[in-house]
Design a protein that fits this description.
It is a single chain. By secondary structure, this protein is of the alpha+beta class. The protein has helices spanning about 5-35, 50-60, 65-70, 85-95, 145-160, 170-190, 190-220, 225-240, 245-269; strands spanning about 40-45, 75-80, 100-105, 120-130, 135-145. α5 runs antiparallel to α6 (about 170-190), α7 (about 190-220) runs parallel beside α9 and α8 packs antiparallel against α9. About 20% of the residues are buried. The structure holds ligand 0O2 (2 copies).
């Protein structure tokens, strides 16, 4: 039906998906470091299969030579957030970026789809630097909570199984499940502050534990065996507790001894 070289056609889309995945994963770690919290939980991405592109083109009556403009989700990025509130913050961060252009947005969170589907979609134009020059491609970013993702993944697989013709009973059940997912998001939002605080505490503890263990290793390296053993013992007694303050205090004491050891070592050299 179509004589185009699909492998060649999809190259810039594959590149766009790979680059955007890296960029959003980086945004996640950067925000965690800067603010101790990220509106991104995890990121996935895919290039649409040729068969699905052709099916969609037929359904939307997009002529073969207009596929690049007519099918907006050949490159698709999906970003999962923990809380509904994170979605608008993330959308704002996307709107401010200089490496992409927002074409338009579809808010299926305020306007839930008939099926029960909820997500926030942003269609972007993303410039890909190819071997032959700059090539702008369209991509779809879907932002949703973990609960929205759970529902959409299951609904998608059921639709696939029933070939888009869901039995009315299943359709009804799915609508009920969508309401349950909505309530789950509401409940989670109501304890957002507690959840975020607990997660930050967990991250803080992991960082201090790693700092302490590294510093003890270094003490051994600089031949401060007695001190290293002493601190290891002190750490063992604290490790299972949630006493972050005591761990911080211990970390400070180890650092002091380590600084002395370093000074002595370099003075001797
Ligand atoms: P990690 O170490 O698992 O955290 P690639 O390998 O780059 O080509 P990609 O996109 O990284 O492919 O893999 P994929 O399969 O699309 O999944 C993307 C990331 O989302 C992976 O993490 C998955 O582990 C993570 N993921 C998938 N489902 C869930 C989930 O339900 N909860 C959470 N928290 N993460 C999930 P990474 O980036 O490989 O790193
Ligand atoms: P994939 O790759 O299988 O996910 P369309 O609604 O598709 O006729 P439009 O306007 O391009 O036309 O799409 P829309 O509705 O804005 O968003 C398209 C994508 O959103 C879909 O991609 C799904 O990923 C997701 N989506 C939209 N509605 C639903 C729904 O009711 N249930 C689920 N599970 N996902 C939905 P595709 O084309 O299905 O491709």
């Amino acid at each position: 039906m179509d004589g185009r070289d699909w492998r060649k056609f999809l190259v810039p889309y594959e590149q766009a998906v790979e680059e955007l995945k890296v960029k959003f994963k980086t945004m996640r770690s950067e925000l965690k470091i800067r603010e101790g919290y990220s509106p991104i939980e995890f990121v996935t991405g895919r290039v649409k299969k040729v068969s699905s592109i052709l099916e969609k083109a037929k359904r939307l009556q997009v002529p073969a030579d207009k596929i690049e403009q007519g099918i907006e989700d050949i490159a698709g990025i999906r970003i999962m957030s923990q809380f509904v509130e994170d979605i608008q913050r993330l959308a704002e961060l996307i709107r401010q970026r200089k490496d992409l252009k927002v074409v338009y947005e579809k808010d299926y969170i305020t306007n839930t789809k008939e099926s029960g589907y909820r997500s926030f979609h942003i269609i972007i134009e993303y410039p890909v630097q190819t071997a032959l020059g700059l090539k702008p491609v369209l991509a779809e970013i879907q932002i949703r909570t973990l609960a929205m993702n759970f529902w959409a993944t299951i609904e998608h697989s059921l639709n696939y199984k029933f070939n888009e013709e869901l039995p009315p009973k299943v359709r009804e059940r799915l609508k009920k499940a969508a309401e349950a997912a909505y309530l789950l998001d509401e409940e989670m939002s109501s304890i957002r502050d507690e959840v975020v605080e607990a997660q930050q505490l967990f991250d803080e503890k992991s960082t201090i534990v790693a700092t302490i263990l590294n510093a003890i290793q270094e003490l051994y390296f600089y031949n401060r065996v007695k001190e290293a053993e002493h601190f290891q013992l002190a750490f063992n007694q604290l490790a299972d507790s949630d006493n972050v303050r005591a761990l911080k205090e211990l970390s400070g004491r180890i650092q002091k001894v380590l600084n002395e050891a370093l000074k002595e070592h370099y003075d001797l050299e």
